[in-house]
């Protein structure tokens, strides 16, 4: 899969080995297998059409910083992304090749979802230590995020660091409350629901009251993500990069974070909400898998009116019987993963399972009941 046109091989610049120290600074995952370099983080930038994704990427590409970032711009959307990236590239020529910019960043514009560009980029390993991938305004970032879990070969070189969603302060309210025919979830809402960081951009165009309103709507959908407010997508890079939203490094901070997440409330009848719950005790891996699979795969967990619960994002810290370390649960749509953290349960710690779910038709009490039922079921029998 990584094999690419051998003709260009000769033109390829010599690979520069990545120093360990660089990696530490870049917040790399730190998993070094013999003969392998460290994994490169990928941040997915999503957001509705015109929200300010390209503005954010261009800001990062032109700003002076010490990071060597590779940016993949998606040219969907009347070519606006392309036009702006061309403004940065010299000469205004179309390019699909990787372009090296003055501040050490690499940039490439693609037509598809960026997977090919990443494969292509990996041939330049050593020239960058971070990847930013912009999805098209109408894309479901969950599908892109899933690629990193499903594609084992890709997963050995890179890891998903986080999903950043840019929301248009002026039109976001409209995008997020728009009801879709056939009971579908609209893209804007899905993008906010999946995000680990939400940037409410274009705050110059709205009043304080409007800002409060959009912030409340965003929070009502996603109770977990951090929210930033910007003009021209100007953010501190440290707030966007190295979120470690999906890996076990987040173990300790996740525990603190999950304690403060609140269940949110609907702003529309069929809207997306965040539900949190905590159940004291131990579960087993088998029982936990059953709970998650019933929820995500079988769709057999239903709300009071008989509608299946629909989970877009799932996060949790759980206690597995006979395991001394805390375990993280991560889910995006129907994909999920259990990963042991570095954090030990202490002797006098109360063993608990804390879960956060973002989705539709979620009922906290029913979820708790089902979790408890699955948790005790097979332990009692064994
Ligand atoms: N007033 C105002 N305009 C902004 C701001 N940020 C971006 N814009 C403008 O909004 C328009 C859309 O910005 P883009 O960055 O292209 O948005 P995008 O999300 O990449 O758009 P698509 O690629 O079409 O999905 C551009 O004309 C920007 O100049 C802001 O903070 N305030």
UniProtKB/TrEMBL annotation:
Cellular component GO terms, alphabetical: cytoplasm
Keyword GTP-binding in record: yes
Family designation: Belongs to the SIMIBI class G3E GTPase family. ZNG1 subfamily.
Alphabetical list of Pfam families matching this protein: cobW, CobW_C
Gene Ontology molecular-function annotations: GTP binding; hydrolase activity
Sequence ranges assigned to domain CobW C-terminal in this UniProt record: 272-371
Name assigned to this protein: Uncharacterized protein
Coiled-coil region: none
Range of residues in the leader sequence: none
Catalytic activity as recorded in UniProt: GTP + H2O = GDP + phosphate + H(+)
Record keywords: Chaperone, GTP-binding, Hydrolase, Nucleotide-binding, Zinc
CobW/HypB/UreG nucleotide-binding domain ranges (all copies): 41-228
């Amino acid at each position: 899969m990584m094999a690419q046109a051998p003709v260009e091989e000769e033109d390829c610049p010599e690979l520069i080995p990545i120093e360990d120290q660089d990696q530490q600074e870049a917040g790399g995952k730190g998993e070094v297998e013999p003969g392998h370099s460290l994994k490169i983080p990928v941040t997915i930038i999503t957001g509705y059409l015109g929200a300010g994704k390209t503005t954010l990427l261009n800001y990062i590409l032109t700003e002076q910083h010490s990071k060597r970032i590779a940016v993949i711009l998606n040219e969907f959307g009347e070519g606006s992304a392309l036009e702006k990236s061309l403004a940065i590239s010299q000469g205004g020529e179309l390019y699909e090749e990787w372009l090296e910019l003055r501040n050490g960043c690499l940039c490439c514009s693609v037509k598809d979802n960026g997977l090919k560009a990443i494969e292509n980029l990996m041939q330049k390993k050593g020239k960058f230590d971070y990847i930013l991938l912009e999805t098209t305004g109408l894309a479901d970032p969950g599908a892109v995020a899933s690629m990193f879990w499903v594609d084992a070969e890709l997963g050995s070189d890179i890891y998903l660091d986080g999903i950043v969603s840019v929301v248009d302060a002026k039109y976001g309210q409209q995008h997020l409350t728009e009801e879709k025919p056939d009971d579908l979830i609209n893209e804007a809402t899905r993008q906010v629901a999946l995000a680990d960081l939400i940037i409410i951009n274009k705050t110059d165009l709205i009043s304080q009251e409007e800002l409060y309103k959009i912030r409340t709507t965003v929070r009502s959908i996603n109770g977990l993500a951090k929210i930033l407010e910007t003009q021209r997508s100007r953010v501190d890079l440290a707030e966007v990069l190295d979120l470690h939203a999906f890996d076990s490094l987040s173990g300790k901070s996740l525990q603190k974070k999950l304690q403060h997440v609140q269940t949110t409330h609907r702003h529309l009848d069929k809207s997306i909400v965040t539900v949190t719950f905590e159940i004291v005790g131990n579960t087993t891996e088998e029982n936990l898998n059953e709970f998650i699979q019933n929820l995500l795969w079988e769709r057999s967990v239903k709300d009071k009116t008989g509608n299946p619960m629909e989970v877009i994002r799932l996060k949790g810290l759980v206690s597995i019987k006979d395991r001394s370390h805390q375990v993280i649960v991560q889910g995006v749509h129907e994909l999920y993963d259990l990963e042991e953290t570095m954090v030990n349960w202490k002797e006098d710690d109360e063993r608990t399972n804390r879960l956060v779910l973002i989705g539709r038709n979620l009922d906290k009490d029913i979820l708790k009941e089902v979790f408890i039922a699955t948790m005790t079921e097979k332990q009692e029998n064994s």
